[in-house]
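User: two proteins, same treatment. go.

Assistant:
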Amino acid sequence: MTALLEVQDLVAGYGDHEILRGLSLSVGAGELVSVIGPNGAGKSTLLKTLAGLVRPRAGRITFRGADITGSSTRRIIASGLCYVPQEANVFGALSVWENLTIGGWPAPRERSERAHAMVELFPALAARRRARAGTLSGGERQMLAMAMALMVEPRLLLLDEPSAGLAPALQRLVFDRIRDINEGRTGLGALRAGLGALRTGRDRLGILLVEQNARESLALCQRAYVLAMGRVRAEGPGETLRNDPEIRRLYLGG
């Protein structure tokens, strides 16, 4: 599979505290890859470093064949990589529709079309399009954050704990939408090359998913990495890791 993202020997942290200690991973074109591990393993730091919010101290990050190590967040977004943080991911004082149109800043002439595609993908947003984002439920806010990221038509989506704090039914809905996004059922393909093109492995949207619900995450993904102490401790197909007795004991509650 063609590599969309390659991370080699990545070292990063905050101040004197080193979090990532020589981490390497990859995401293939159109692939959904999960990252699981205990609190403090470096999962969120990994995504922030890839998004340009934390500067790497060593290692190399290659996206779509270009070296983006240490690049600005603006350049990283323009290259097609978009990050959805767990918190502070929408503009609470603005309406749902205003949030979507802000998300479409790279293509102002297509913002309205893309925003309509997003409310079709997330019907809950259609009914709340004039509501302030700060009044949304946790699940609605998470859907809006993902929709805003999709407005820039990324090639790779970085999702940080999208189900955190949600009731089980809403978690299920969020996971279903993540699957739809990865499989190209977003409606945005018609703006570029048709929906069929997004369903090919090469053109489908890649996703790197950090998720607290490890069991569901492994069931959803094609491949997964297990992080501990800033390093990759295991990797492989999601289903294989989900059925591994040691992984189940350490990370899935037996």
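Protein 2:
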Amino acid sequence: MPRLIALIDVNNFYVSCERVFNPKLEGVPVVVLSNNDGCAVARSNEVKALGVKMGQPWFEMKDLAKKHGIIAYSSNYTLYADMSSRVMSILSEYSPNQEIYSIDECFLDLTGFQNQSTYGHGIRQRIKQCTGLPVCVGIGSTKTLSKLANHIAKKNPEFSGVCDLNSLSPTLHDEWLSRIEVGEVWGIGRRLAPRLNKHGIKTVLDLKHANPKRLREDFSVVMEKTIHEINGTPCIAMEEISPPKKQIISSRSFGITVKDLASLEESVSSHIARAAEKLRRQQSYAGSVQVFITTSRFNKPEENYHNDFKIKLPTQSADTILLTKVALWGLHKIYRRGYKYNKAGVMLSDLVDSEHRQTDLFGLRLEDSKSKRLMKVIDQINARMGKGTIKLASEGTDQLWKMKQGSRSPGYTTDWDELVSVSD
């Protein structure tokens, strides 16, 4: 029985989320900006047509925005995460084997299913009806081919949002692959494409006919697997359960430059709280804590300063209070007066699960049990009442350094005070 993998991808996800709750944005050029409204992280098709690139700084496109009426929104990550959760929940009903690849992409194993194209159109219609979000569906015999099929569905309206490469004749199948640049292949991108071009490989069809063993020598085993995948031989398995992260990083640029230690302490404490919550969510413990601070890279050389400090813990922990104490101790070690800092962050590493956690020989089991119960209660209250309902005093209250979100849309689905109101 031939293997069938579908990739479902939400079109222009962040922009589409904004349009769901503001239909007036349909057909209007819209861009969603990164932290502190820095650069474009999502663009509507209208903005792409104007030549705006992914990651292009907002200040570079302000004149273009004024001329063409581009509307800019600050990133509303809470809203996007909630909309993603709704989409993935619906998709889980369509196959027993699901892999959530990213916030807006999902693989489904449809092996054994009949009328895959019809099934794909049904998925599109259901997602649109239940969430208002437009999706495209790509179907192929491998994950790499399903990615390419999704790309074809997005770029070619004649497919009506669903491309099933398995249903195409071999000649037509290769014809479509010949139209796609090799840089569009999953895992290759702009970095490896120029090197492949030097080998005479410019399209996906060229890569399909390349010698996998030879390219493995020049590149890596991943390239060999990619070639086999394009030829229909599965080499990349479905991950039905996402593996736990090996590192957890929490970092964000400040809305204003920061000079005082107190503001840096608030920022580091906030990042630790966020990282520790993620740590507990995947039921892991951290063996080390790293804290870092940096000034803007656009400063003059004499005004630049960046440093980090890593602390090895005697016993792996997931306790926010303990991790915060350790991180703040490290911050005091690297802080230098007189500099204008624009970013701080933390990284939890040497992660282990509960089964492989090595406790301290002299550690007190009672204290460990109290810590677990306390963290569980805090997580439950914050999940129910909203992020930051309970937090450490070291996180501060005003947090004047927080990132700029001057054009953030309301939390339509995540905040009781910002629910959509319908009037006559």
